[in-house]
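Support request, please re-run this one:
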Amino acid sequence: TDRLSFASDPGTVLEVSIASLCDRVNRLVSGCRTGICIANSERTALERAIFPNLPPSFQSCIKDIPIGPPYFGSCTAAMDGDVIITCHDMASEARFDECFVAHCVQHGIFSLQSRPVHGRDGKPIGTFVMTFPVPCVVTDFNVAVMGFAAEAVSALLQRELDITQQTHTAASTTARTEA
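Re-run finished. Output below.
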């Protein structure tokens, strides 16, 4: 099926795995804080975000944000265009909604990069995001780390999709057998 479905309970294997990956990337790239955004089942909106090293108030606002123009923020643009989006200086960013820019700045994010992560079908299912507390230029090292982390997130999200699909298939089979 072409629909996405992720478990949404905090503390799931996905949440713990993402937090561990983000922690490792944060230690590799001085000063960064990382996280992910996850698309809904129709790939029409960002369903939720996991940013383990940012306050809950940052990720709690990333729910049901439409993917498509006009772009609310960098992740919606990255997913819709299947491109890497880099914001070198959030304070002067004009491509995205002013609420997104203000939300980032309020949470100490002054530069970021959003990179699409892909499911097995090659379509974006989320983004991996690296943020910095100062305006900056993404270095070659950060690009290499971003590439690695995005591939790891792709694998984690695809594994979660596979598990969820297997659970739904088993439940459907049981329901038909009992009927």
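The chain has five helices and six strands. The longest strand covers residues 124-132.
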